[in-house]
Amino acid sequence: MKPHHLLLSFLAATTVTAHYTFPELIVNGKKTGLWTYVRKTANYQSNGPITDISSPSIRCYELSPGTPSKTYNVSAGDDVGFTAASSISHPGPLQFYMAKAPEGQTAATFDGSGKVWFKVYSQGATFSPGGGMAFASSGVNVIPFATPTSPKPLHYHRNHASNPHPSQPGKSQLTISLPASLPSGDYLLRIEHIALHSASSRGGAQFYISCAQLTVQNGSGGGQLPPPDQMVAFPGAYEASDPGILVNIYYPVPTSYTPPGPAVWSG
């Protein structure tokens, strides 16, 4: 093979490797099977992101018509997460949203349309005194669900014991719990990682998304969903010009960062 062909092959392989999906639900440390309880996404082979936030695909990025997925029974307070294949390789915020299936629908039949989504977790950037900016999700290949009142993941588990820095590539799992105040019912659980390495130009931010199907049992009997001002629709929740989406994270290095979307619902 000629040298330039080798280079093109390498670049193509690198591009695929640099992208990622969230194909598997994890409940209380148990992996539940690839695309079994997670709706198969349109990028399940390419791993490529979605960049058009006005597209309906920004909701769950699922195949059309999609592959039927099962619904997993969980209890309020369970530890719930996703695997990442192969790992989160770009810097950016990690967020979780949920949407409760309306009366007469299930998690399997609910398409997630309308102002039904509420944010339950948001992990932004950390900043060092010397002017550095970092995202704790970079390098993760097992993604947790998060309690809405927790500003950052509570536990980090690393691939290699020699890696002393949980915010650096090499960590494989971080775990927090499903809120106990969540009302019982069927839900879509949406994971969103926004890669910001090319976000200095409009349309440069890359969205990596999956939705799992859950039935929440033993939830709060009197639990209420968030008020209307904390509910959003996908598409519609974000604008391409939002400062959490259109941002240069390299130069000049920002001194603050707020992920896009509504406030986190604290239950």
TrEMBL record:
| Gene3D superfamilies the UniProt entry points to | 2.70.50.70
**What's the domain of life for this entry?**
Eukaryota
* Location of the Auxiliary Activity family 9 catalytic domain: 19-257
Q: Which UniProt keywords apply?
A: Carbohydrate metabolism, Cellulose degradation, Copper, Disulfide bond, Hydrolase, Metal-binding, Monooxygenase, Oxidoreductase, Polysaccharide degradation, Secreted, Signal
- Check the record and name the Pfam families matching this protein: AA9
Tell me which Gene Ontology terms the entry assigns under biological process: cellulose catabolic process
Biased amino acid composition, Polar residues = 161-175
The reply on keyword Phosphoprotein is: no
Matching InterPro entries: AA9 (IPR049892), AA9_LPMO (IPR005103)
Renumbered to this chain, the signal peptide range is 1-18
Q: Which PANTHER family match?
A: ENDO-BETA-1,4-GLUCANASE D, PUTATIVE (AFU_ORTHOLOGUE AFUA_1G12560)-RELATED
> In its UniProt entry, what is this protein called?
lytic cellulose monooxygenase (C4-dehydrogenating)
Q: Which organism is it from?
A: Leptosphaeria maculans (strain JN3 / isolate v23.1.3 / race Av1-4-5-6-7-8)
